[in-house]
From TrEMBL:
GO cellular component: cytosol
PANTHER family with a match to the protein in the record: BLR4509 PROTEIN, DEFERROCHELATASE/PEROXIDASE
Region (Disordered): 221-245
The protein's name: Peroxidase
Transmembrane regions listed in the UniProt entry: none
Keyword entries, A-Z: Iron, Metal-binding, Oxidoreductase, Peroxidase
Organism: Rhodoferax koreensis
Length: 510
């Protein structure tokens, strides 16, 4: 949040209209609370939202003590009286909702104990309307939260109140987290519609995370565009791509929220049994499942790190091209599934001949490495927070698993994206829950899998670790370590759009 960072933002990007969470992780704001609200009194709710002190992405120095972020579900927009045709201009997934149908649930792996019917919140009368995310510097949360809650009391009922801290970049299983994030192209220097990306790159077009800007295809993701008469006061920014239209989506993003309960004792005790109680072996197996060591060193880069002999190394500067069989990092490791770091073309030499071979699919070496889709269309900006008291490893090895009544810990998984179907849902279903990811057979993400048998009755509770000589080592009987307790799709509007959503219907334009 420094002013130096502002210098490289393109003039067309109105940082003061973008919610801060798109640009900042609020990592210094170690105290946080998420509130799920439902509209009770329409007028009072609109009044509060119209004036809510939402923090923008503009740099502020010194750091503000508190930062409020606001997002709405489609049901929330309906409850606020936003005209149906306006809500229907958002994407179909957002409008219908995360837990809305059995087909989506099956694709996302929301089955068995993850099924929407078992959720604590997210369905029917327990669907949130508004999400408030409160971030505060140490010691500054309580009084501020009480003030916000008392202001909201007239307009909203509180469905859930979740204190969620920041475990200093370590998630509950004990791994460094928040290392890899896409880099947003704030200067808009990346050519839109860059036809072909031969190598994996971390820089992503703004339109992958913010509506109203060109995405990696060079197009603008669909969002509600309104005739100027629907915005007579000019509250909304105007669309870049359709002159004259008011752009309700611009500077906004879709926010995916999933409450993921983690069985920390279950995770470590299972690994300990596999490792025969050997500490080093247990750590190695855990690292294989994540794809990084606990301190964050990527397994795909481990030899390189060793060679660097302690020199500072960028923990995010790697891909999997040199490890096609998964000998360094198993093909099914969580980080390899979540971001296979693949480019549009399979890897190969530079030069026109190699390009032609790879484009036409004639490169026999590359064929096996071209099993996963190009990553640049499936990036997620993660903004999750942990909840519950951390369980130290010694305790985790002895305590009852959460399933047997141990205390609850977990992750509020939060990610931002401009296209829920192409980004979050694709990653979650094809890559994480997918049982044939990258040529694997009948195994899902080792951290997140539900271990439900396939429709043909084949078990999915295994994890393969390729070996240099001989067949893969295959761990079987993996329990479910993570359980989904609720979820919803929200829209995180630009600040001007939030004012519009709060007030537009009140003027009777339906
Ligand atoms: C309790 C659940 C989860 C745990 C414990 C977990 C843990 C981790 C860890 C330790 C990392 C490595 C640190 C890093 O690269 O920043 C990571 C990376 C990542 N995770 Fe998860 N994760 C969870 C759920 C999810 C879900 C639900 C998704 C997506 C739908 C996801 C997507 C990602 C992505 C995209 C990365 C970065 C991969 C890369 O770019 O290399 N994770 N996760």
């Amino acid at each position: 949040m420094t002013t130096a960072a502002t210098a490289s933002v393109h003039a067309s990007v109105a940082l003061d209209d973008i919610q801060g969470i798109v640009r900042f992780g609020y990592k210094h704001h170690t105290e946080a609370c998420f509130l799920l609200l439902r509209v009770r009194d329409l007028l009072a709710a609109r009044q509060w939202l119209a004036a809510a002190p939402v923090a923008s992405a503009a740099a502020v120095e010194p750091l503000p003590a508190t930062a409020l972020q606001v997002a709405l579900t489609a049901e929330g927009m309906h409850a606020l009286g936003v005209p149906r045709h306006v809500v229907d201009g958002f994407s179909a997934e957002f409008v219908s909702g995360m837990g809305s149908d059995a087909s989506r649930a099956r694709r996302l792996g929301d089955v068995g104990s993850n099924a929407p019917e078992a959720w604590r919140w997210g369905l029917g009368a327990r669907t949130p309307h508004v999400l408030l995310m409160l971030y505060a510097l140490p010691g500054r949360l309580n009084a501020w939260q009480a003030a916000i809650e008392s202001e909201c009391a007239a307009g909203f009922d509180t469905l859930a109140r979740w204190p969620c801290g920041d475990l200093r970049n370590v998630e509950h299983f004990g791994f460094a987290d928040g290392i890899s994030q896409p880099e947003l192209d704030w200067p808009r220097a990346r050519p839109a519609a860059d036809a072909e990306q031969a190598d994996y790159a971390n820089l992503a077009c703004l339109g992958e995370f913010l509506l109203g800007y060109p995405n990696e295809y060079g197009g603008y993701t669909d969002r509600p565009l309104l005739d100027p008469e629907q915005d007579p006061q000019g509250l909304l920014p105007r669309a870049e791509d359709v002159p004259g239209q008011a752009d309700l989506g611009r500077n906004g993003s879709y926010l995916v929220l999933r409450q993921l309960q983690q069985d920390v004792p279950g995770f470590w005790q299972w690994l300990d049994r596999q490792a025969g109680g050997d500490h080093e072996r247990r750590e190695q197996l855990a690292a294989c499942m994540v794809g990084r060591t606990r301190s964050g060193v990527p397994l795909a880069q481990a030899t390189h790190i060793g060679a660097a002999m302690g020199a500072a190394v960028d923990l995010n500067d790697f891909d999997f091209n040199a490890d096609p069989r998964g000998l360094c990092c198993p093909l099914g490791a969580h980080v390899r599934r979540a971001n296979p770091r693949s480019a549009d073309l399979p890897p190969g030499d530079a030069g026109p001949l190699s390009w032609l071979r790879r484009t036409l699919g004639f490169d026999s070496q590359a064929l096996g490495q071209d099993l996963v889709a190009s990553t640049r269309f499936h990036r997620l900006l993660r903004r999750g927070r942990e909840y519950g008291r951390p369980v130290p490893l010694v305790e985790a090895l002895q305590k009852p698993s959460t399933a047997d009544g141990g205390h609850e810990t977990g992750l509020f998984f939060v990610c931002l994206n401009a296209n829920i179907a192409r980004q979050f849902e694709f990653v979650q279903s094809a890559w994480l829950a997918g049982t044939h990811f990258n040529g694997l057979a009948n195994e899902a993400d080792p951290l997140l899998g539900t271990r439900q048998a396939t429709p043909e009755g084949v078990a999915t509770d295994s994890f393969s670790i390729p070996q240099a000589h001989g067949p893969d080592r295959r761990l079987t009987g993996l329990p479910q370590f993570v359980t989904l307790r609720g979820g919803a799709y929200f829209f995180l509007p630009g600040l001007r759009a939030l004012r519009y959503l709060a007030w537009a219907p009140a003027r009777g334009r339906r």
